[in-house]
Amino acid sequence: IARQYPFVRVVKEPIQGRTVARARGFDVAKGDILGRIDADSVVMTDWVKRVVADFQDPSVGGLTGLGSTRVIMGLNWHSTLWSRAYFLNIRSLHGIVSTWGANMAVRRSAWQDIKDDMAPNGLLVHEDQDVAYQLIGHGHRVVQDNKLIIRTHGGSVLYWPKYWDYMKKTFRMKAYHDRKGTLSGHEELQISLPRRLISGLVGLIPAMLFTIYALISWPIFKALHHIDSNKLKEIR
């Protein structure tokens, strides 16, 4: 699909994993702003325009936006509720505006500043959140534009084992950067304690609902996956 577009360059990376794929893409990109989305991200028509406008502020090194996902599995009802809850809880826990790999952009000069300090793989950290930590640790501001929206399915994180692993890695990542002292000396770029508390309180209820929903949805996903696997065997 990508090769159908004359302005697209497909880059091959022999090492598997999002961390090295991201680094490879960012390293070979020629633009002043590096946009990043996922394979299933559908950007809004003004996406590029908003990204360019947000980077008019020279202090901005990283940018992120919201995702419109299905609120309830099986219903064609999309909302930014879950992504808003995600960002609120990350603000509360980490005290920073994090970047989200499905909808983000980085100034190329800022990437050059941080790339050698990035975690080597995604085993200890969320590689997209690691970008935000490193940007702030190098004195670059990360901003969230709630009008920068993509649409994505977002259902895979409802698979309980993946969701639980995601949560554990989020806490491990904070400990990882606390040990490294990544944010030390850049308090002005971090979120104040009162705002962190407010974010936590506001994001707590949807986060709890999402967790309960993931627990309930897990056996349904397992059953559907089993059915799909059987259909695939029949086709083969």
Structural commentary:
The protein has helices at residues 18-28, 47-54, 81-94, 108-114, 127-137, 160-180, 193-235, and strands spanning 33-37, 42-43, 60-70, 78-79, 103-107, 141-151. The protein is 49% helix and 15% strand. Helix 3 crosses helix 7. Strands 1, 2, 3, 4, 5 and 6 form a six-stranded mixed sheet that branches. It has 236 residues and is an alpha+beta fold. The protein is globular. The mean pLDDT is 89. A hairpin with a 7-residue loop joins strand 3 (60-70) and strand 4.
List the helices and strands and how they pair.
Layout: H1 18-28, E1 33-37, E2 42-43, H2 47-54, E3 60-70, E4 78-79, H3 81-94, E5 103-107, H4 108-114, H5 127-137, E6 141-151, H6 160-180, H7 193-235
Structural key phrases:
single chain, 236 residues, alpha+beta, six-stranded mixed β-sheet, 15% strand
Quick structural gist:
The chain has 7 helices and 6 strands, in the order αββαββαβααβαα. By secondary structure, it is α+β, with helices and mostly antiparallel strands. Strands 1, 2, 3, 4, 5 and 6 form a 6-stranded mixed beta sheet that branches.
Largest sheet, if any? 6 strands, mixed
Dominant shape: globular
Question: How many DSSP-defined strands?
Answer: 6
- Mean pLDDT over the full residue set: 89
Please give the radius of gyration in angstroms.
18 Å
Question: What proportion strand?
Answer: 15-25%
Distance between the termini: 25 Å
Low-confidence stretches: none
Tally of alpha and pi helices: 7
Helix content: 40-55%
Given the helix and strand composition, which structural class is it? Answer: alpha+beta
How do the SSEs run, as a string of H and E? HEEHEEHEHHEHH
